[in-house]
């Protein structure tokens, strides 16, 4: 089956290490559970042992939620620079919609990138369900001119591109 994960050696070599880590994780989770419980949502908690991105992705694949919410930055420091952050690894591989939060405040200005797809419609529905008090939203769609998609010109030449566009529009 391969070599054992070296990061798991501490679990077995250092006395009471697993218990101390579990106690610290429990302390972290209790505050979040209390805050979510105040919102009247049904809240449960769970603590997994192991590599964070692997454990999270295993849990997401076993019981996919409708939405995964994660903070943009955690405790990785220099290690994240070398191997990529947990948030990035999980968001890129999650089987569900992922919301990455950067600040601890309610959004006041929201930009919804909209392309008419079912996923974009879901984004609009999600923003519509947010508390609207004090929030403004902009729905942004970017339209690429069709003639530019099919014009056979050197894109580095603005003059040639403009001339090709005029010819294509004249036809």
3D structure, described in words:
The protein has helices spanning 9-13, 17-38, 52-62, 78-83, 86-93, 118-128, 146-150, 158-170, and strands at 67-71, 97-101, 109-113, 136-140. The protein is mainly alpha-helical and 171 residues long. The strands form 2 sheets. Strands 1-2 form a two-stranded parallel ribbon. It has a two-stranded parallel sheet with strand order 3-4. Helix 6 (118-128) links the parallel strand 3 (109-113) and strand 4. Mean pLDDT is 77; it is low at 79-84.
Could you state the order of secondary-structure elements as H and E?
HHHEHHEEHEHH
So what's the overall shape?
elongated
| Helical stretch tally | 8
Overall residue-averaged pLDDT value: 77
Largest sheet: 2 strands, parallel
Structural class: mainly alpha
Residues in β-strands, percent: 5-15%
Q: Please mark out the parts with pLDDT under 50 across 5 or more consecutive residues, or reply none.
A: 79-84
Number of DSSP-assigned strands? 4
List the topology elements.
Layout: H1 9-13, H2 17-38, H3 52-62, E1 67-71, H4 78-83, H5 86-93, E2 97-101, E3 109-113, H6 118-128, E4 136-140, H7 146-150, H8 158-170
Parallel strand pairs: 1-2, 3-4
